[in-house]
Queue: 2 jobs
Job 1
Amino acid sequence: MRWRLPLTPTRPLHAVPPRWRGLLLAAFLAQLGWHALEPAPEARARPVPEALPLPVLRLAALGEPATLATAGTLWLQYFDEQPGESIPFRELDYHRVRDWLARWSALDPDSGYPLLLAVRIYAQVSDPARQRIMLEFVLDRFLERPGARWRWLAEAAILARHRLHDDRLALRYARLLAEHTRPGEVPHWARDLQILLLEDIGELEAAKVLIGGLLANGEIRDPNEIRYLEQRLEALKERTGTENKPEERD
Amino acid sequence: MGMIRTIARDGLREAGQNRLLWLVAVLLLGTFLLAEFVGAVALTEHRSVQAALAGTLLRLGAVFLMALFVVTTLLREQQDRTLDLVLALSQPRSHYVLGKLATYFLLAVALAAACALPAGLYAPPDALARWAVSLACELWLVAAFGLLLAFTFRQPVAALAGLGAVYLLSRSTAALVLIVQGSPFRHTGWGHAIVDYGVTALAWILPSLHRFTDASWLAHHAGDWAGVGLVLGQTAVYAVLLAAAAAFDLYRREF
């Protein structure tokens, strides 16, 4: 059986009177000309609107909150690229951006997209106050679902250390990451992030104390993690031993 | 000319017979009640909120009703062989298209005028007049698209789905072009090239409906009559194009 388009039979082209053929061509050309001559869309830079209440958004989602969250996240992502206008991140109202991100995250808790935007897009702005808004947003979302969102808090800790240069904040995030996750739920390096940060900022003694405490309290039972921490402890002892050793004189 | 007038008169009579007026009345009343409710709970700028909501609901509702009316009546004429009788007359087929377009023009004007009644409660006369003129143009173009697609697909679901897709694309293509061309996040590769050229091509072919019937005209009294001039120009150009395309299609059909 041959497949056919579900269209009615057609008569030959010359069944169409020439003036209608000509008019169709002329009208099509007129449309192209109109498009070429009409003014370009106006650039209208608008501020980020206030986030709508979550119940309203749930109602508007019509039973598809994840779909609305996806569309809303993309809308927010492109908000700085409004038609004909590019808005620097530092001119966006970050409180409103944070509120919108929180709404989309609440509508689709399984999606990491709002957290990715917060850490890798909005927190990259060179404005410490705005960076802190985004990092606190990530912390709040992490505390809601630590097991699923630990990686974003780990990234936030790294950002706090290297972009914001706030070691206390970075250590706080790393500590909360360890406190709110269970062994085996996240990789070793993530739970031991505070050790790595302490090493990174030169607090070797504090790192040693922390590892010693972790090994002593028996909370860690995974043999691989215990071995990893023991290796770190040995390495730290060697480093502190070398650094404390007085320089030999000729 | 007589046949065109007869078809237009019959079309208007049919609009009165198939409860279109009742549906329009429900749309106007529902919009009014919802706008009043929102105005009662809005904390600030309640008049602007009401105007924006009323403008949006009325536009979408009117477009929806017009699309349904056009597609269903045209398909019914094809299925009950009324169209065969009309085409058997010693008149050019193009007269049928022109008669239908005349019907839809009058209906669009009447529908836009009706929608202006509740919208006028929340907007000044100048902004309301511009909005209503633009709405009439938009409704006429939607109806003309419906005429073309009803003959192309000959199935209500396909015709209405096609009409919905064309309408949404026409309203959003300009913004899509700017996003595709200007986004720093866009991907590279052949997939992007297809989207890029495809969206740009659509912008050339489809009418610039993004300029039509903006609710902010009512809410914030934005826009001016020069903007309405662009709307009228685009309507004139595209109505001729759709009329020619519909006539072209109808001449080639074998019934």
Note: Strands of chain A lie at 81-82, 85-86.
Job 2
Amino acid sequence: MPEPVGFFTDSSVCIGCKACEVACKEWNQLEGNTPSWGDGFDNTKQLDAENWRHVKFIDNVPQGEMLTGNGAAWLMMSDVCKHCKNAACMEVCPTNAIVRTEYDTVYIQPSVCNGCRDCISACPFGVIGFSAKTGAAQKCTLCYDRLQANMQPACAKVCPTQSIQFGSLSDLHAKADARLAALHAQGNDKAQLYGRDDSIYGGLNSFFLLMDKPEVYGLPNKENAVLPSRNNFKSYLAAFVAAAIGVFAGVKALSGTPESGGSAAGSA
Amino acid sequence: MTEHFAAAPGWEWWITLYFFSAGLAGGLYVLATIFRLRGTVRDESLARMGFIWAFPLVVLCGIFLTVDLGKPLDFWHMMINTTPGAGGLNWKPWSPISIGTWALLLFSIFSFVAFVFASMVERRARAGEADLSPPGFAKVFNVIGSALGLFLASYTGVVLSVSNQWVWSDSWAIGALFVASGLSASAALMAWLGRSRADASTEARLQRADGYFALLELVALVLFFVTLAMAGALGHTLHGIYWVLWILVVLSLIPPLRALGARAQAAGGALSALVVIAGVLLMRIAVIFSAQY
């Protein structure tokens, strides 16, 4: 059994070059969407069926005088499927198309998925998209085919700043811990690891070093990192109570009486 | 305030129609069963009509659900695990969509059998036979079918809640809302379809039932909005055109609620039935579409 693998994405050294996006599309033969040009450098906007890597630009730096020591910078982060230990997509998938591979990654089997799209509403990171071309849900495979050929994922291979690092989880954890310590030593107090421990979906095989709170990057914090199944009991209970009251009300209203034109059918 | 970053699954018209048909099919079956078990001898005709209409609606459910899939011909993957080397049946009790698939299949069987028997008895009734009372086992069969029908009408809402989508996952009341509204629309539909079969007493009882169901729906609706408000998600369902839809949904509850309050039979049966049914459809449209933008 191979060792669990994953990505460590260090957003502190991401320069927003999008080489990861290009390499991912090239290798996985993704056509991509028509670029969306707006007031910023982000023209892919989101992760979806055609974008399995997406460089987020958090560029809403307020206008103002920047002096030494009070500067503000854009934040950039190459986002990707988190390959969660407790994966919400895998939890709800009715066809069992979403499986955990021998590399401990989360993989959608294209031939098994029938395109019900329940996984899309379950994924808390907005990672999965539906492809009208294939009729299936699609997302990062962590280059499952390349892993089988002992190659590293395409995005990690091309990343010029080593913002995206691939390797065994234990190695990546050690590198991330060292990097975080270095940043804290430099006074970057907001720097934090996201998904390194088990507080977010039991741990993420694709985890991040962030330079601000997770919410700033559009990532759920610990309180909001919840599984869909949390609502099972309450929802079923409410539905059951409503159904029981409905049946009771129906019986009360519809029961025949001698006044209503005859004896009850049950006693006829 | 709860924060969500899930993407929209693109569940639109087919799913809306499926959820709507599921509520009607389940509701009609339940009302037919109640009429059979607790109604008068004359109500048996209306019970048969309910069973006869429930089955085509279930067939529509299957069609809508299948057409919505990205790969409709692979619909059976919901039930059979086609993962290489795995095999066996797909059964995930913690995934409502998985349980719902089986519930739909089972309810289809129950509604088909009820449809066949009701159609046969209907033929006998037209031939003038006197004894048309169903055998005892039919009643037991119908009770089991009703439980499945109620599940079908409600699980569609639970599917939405068991997600990470805003609005849907912010409320646990959607399943309750769907089952209450399904019963309400079914009572309205039954009153309208069965107007030639029902006497004044039956019509009055159906309207009273619809009034109770509408009251239940109103309570579920209040719970839905309260839970959304608590999660800070009201704005995600009351934006754009959707607040107008929600107002129409509330207005559609007025005819059955008025009938509940009045002792006399409410006027405009066909129109009020249409208003109730349209309101139930609008409610599903508002729930499903407003959360996906």
Note: Chain B has a mean pLDDT of 93.
